[in-house]
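User: Please fill in residues for this 156-position structure.
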């Protein structure tokens, strides 16, 4: 099967992204097995700020990559949130969604009655994939992650 026009084969894209990350002094760990399920390639990267992100190409997306970060709420934070009134809990997560909306990221909340994970994703299509755009997207995901973390901390 031919690669669609404007798309790079996953191997070339993965190699290019790895080079970009390394040129900025960021180590990337190649994820394999269960950690890279349903991806053409997947890298785990720890940013200077300490935020951990994943850069990957889903197997069902031949023309884009995704930059993702997940904020995991500790058991203590979840317990503290559970002790708050329901309106405060809902307000916290509504505030996360509202404050992150202008940042050009997709946000999803996961968990039970009190959310335990905040997933933040940004997608870049290959026709717009440049080093500048790639690092701007990483910066955007990092800002969104830090803002979500701050909002949760302010509630607790």
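Assistant: Residues filled in for all 156 positions:
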């Amino acid at each position: 099967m031919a690669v669609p026009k404007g798309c790079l084969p996953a191997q070339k894209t993965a190699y290019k992204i790895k080079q970009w990350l390394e040129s900025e002094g960021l180590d990337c760990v190649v994820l394999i097995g269960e950690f890279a399920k349903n991806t053409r390639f997947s890298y785990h990267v720890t940013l200077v700020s300490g935020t951990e992100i994943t850069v990957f190409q889903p197997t069902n997306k031949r023309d884009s990559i995704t930059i993702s970060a997940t904020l995991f709420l500790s058991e203590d934070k979840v317990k503290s949130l559970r002790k708050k009134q329901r309106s405060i809990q809902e307000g916290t997560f509504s505030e996360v969604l509202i404050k992150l909306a202008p940042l050009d990221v997709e946000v999803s909340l996961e968990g039970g009655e009190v959310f335990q994970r905040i997933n933040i994703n940004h997608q870049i299509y290959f026709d717009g994939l440049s080093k500048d755009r790639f690092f701007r997207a990483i910066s955007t995901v990092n800002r969104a992650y830090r803002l979500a973390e701050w909002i949760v901390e302010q509630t607790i």
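For context: Confidence is low (pLDDT under 50) at residues 1-9.
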